[in-house]
Structure formats: C-alpha cells, structure tokens
Amino acid sequence: MRSFYLKGFIGLSAAILFSTAALSQLTVDFDMTPDQMAQNLVGEGVEIFNVQVTSADSAYGYYYSVGTEIGNSEGILLTTGNASNAIGPNDESGLPEIDDAGNCVNCDDYDNMFAGSELLTTANGGLTTWDACTFEFDIVPQGDSLNFAFVFASEEYLEWVGSSFNDVFGFFISGPGVGTDVNIALIPGTSTPVAINSVNHIDNTEYFYDNQDPLGQGVQYDGFTQGINAEVGGLTACETYHLKLIIADGSDRIYDSGVFISRIESNPVTILSTTAGGIDYMIEGCNDGIVTFESSFTPTSDLDVV
C-alpha cells in the first residue's frame, strides 16, 4: 500500500511539474514593425513616435511571457544575439557555446554581428562593445515623470560576475531639464547603473534571480534582474524627449544577453469638476465650482496651473 502511494505521489509530482512547465511560456514575435512594437509600449500618459532601430532584425522582437520566471508581461526584447534564443528551457550552459580552445562555436548563429555602441563604450569607461542593439524614439509625457519595468538577463551569470567580460546595457534619455544621454537604468535608490557586476548573487541580491538553481523552464538565460523599474522625474509635461534603449556584448562577442522592456507610463493629471448644489453648469457670480486635479503618481516638482 505504501509502495502504491509513493508511486502515485511521484507520478502526481511529475504531472504537476510537467503542467507547470507547459504553462510557462515565452514567445517572441518577429513580424511586428518597430513602430508597432513601440506603440504597444505606450502606457498611460505617453505618446511615442519617430522610432528607429539599429540592429540585426533577428536581435529584437516583441515578447509575451506567461507564467515564466520573469513573470507575466509583454514588451520589447533586445538582445546581443538572436532573440529566439531567449526562449527556455534553460538547457544550455551558455550561448553561444565555447570549445576547449576557447573559440566561439557557431557565433554567426547566435551573435547579431553588428558593431558596438559608442554610447555604451563611453558610459562604461571605454569598455569595448560588440553586437549592439539600439531601439530609440521620441516620447512625450503628459506628466513630469516616466516609469517602466525591465528585466536584464544574461548567459554571463554567474561565471563572469566580477570580471571585465560583462555585457552592458542602458536606457538613455535626453531633453528639457534632463540633459543629454542620461542613463536611467539604475539600482533603486542609487545612482549605480544596473549591470552584471552590480546586481548578482553577491551584490544587491534582492534584485537578482538565479535561473540555474533550479533550471528555468521558460527562459534560457542563466540569471536576470527582478523588481527594478527605470524611472526619471523632473520632466516638463508635454515636451518632447528622446529615449535610447541599448544593449551590447562587452569586451568580447562570447555569451549573449537580453533586456525585456515593458509598458512605459507617465503621471498624467486628470481634471474633475463639480458645482455646489448639484447644478450641472456654472453660473457666473451665482454658485461655487470645485476643480480637482488627480494624478496617479506623486509629482516630483510643483505643477503650474495656467
């Protein structure tokens, strides 16, 4: 009887694990145009236009995550290789593979074979970059801030933490009151950019997910960040800003990384009005009116009502 119970338990456990894996799914759509992808990023209180992409077509796409290790989300996926390689399970120790002599195996199948990013090279102390993928556009916020969630993932976790072989990324904003190419992909509450050497199994561990223990079913990358939003305040409402989303291999082309970017939102102000006595309209000099301004976020600076 105990033997039967044990077999049944093992069978049930296997079924549960199989069902969980089946429900965990990451898909990448390569058929959308860059403009369609950008418009799908439009959240509350923002307008996006003038979309430009500098990368191989295979290096980026629009992703859908259902029940995977990165959570339920959708948005743009930018990679240093082929975006389809982000799809799990995590059954490779690293992509692309390296042979015993230290040479890259089938790099042409995995790297996007584009040049590096001068901006990322400069932002990372002269680090040589390769295989850059840049997605940029103009954006107009209705409020004084922008906010969006992202997940940075890499095959360089955990082996290359603490080394100079670190893939890099950044979200650079330019415009009124901000300056030029200011990186807003920062560890919360700090001015430290998110990177393999700043968020990992040793440092800022609360923002890191080890996808090797246990092996991830939905995502191929060995590790990634979690619970971090890119945020910037002090913007001028209804002015045009430029946002560059960039990722690149660092120091060499070996091992790929990706960044998952979700919906971008601002803090629009909603105007509500009521009148005393329940009258549907205001009569000059006869009844009071109440105008209420509501915002989904706390403004970072005073707002002028003109």
Question: Mind explaining what this structure looks like?
Answer:
The protein starts with a helix and ends in an 11-residue tail after the last strand. It has 306 residues and is mainly β. A hairpin with a 3-residue loop joins β9 (168-175) and β10 (179-183). It has one domain (25-267). The protein is built from four helices and 18 strands.
Please outline what is shown here.
The chain is mostly beta strands and 306 residues long. It has helices at residues 2-23, 34-41, 107-110, 118-123, and strands spanning 25-29, 46-54, 60-68, 71-79, 97-98, 104-105, 129-141, 146-154, 168-175, 179-183, 208-210, 223-225, 228-232, 241-250, 257-261, 265-266, 269-275, 289-295.
Terminal Cα separation, in Å? 80 Å
Tally the helices: what do you get? 4
Average the pLDDT over all residues and give the rounded result.
83
Return the domain count: 1
Structural category: mainly beta
The biggest sheet amounts to: 9 strands, antiparallel
Question: What's the SSE pattern?
Answer: HEHEEEEEHHEEEEEEEEEEEE
Q: How much of the sequence is in beta strands? A: 35-45%
General shape: elongated
For the secondary structure, the number of strands is 18
Cα-based radius of gyration, to the nearest Å: 23 Å
Note poorly predicted spans. 1-21
Helicity, in percent?
Answer: 10-25%
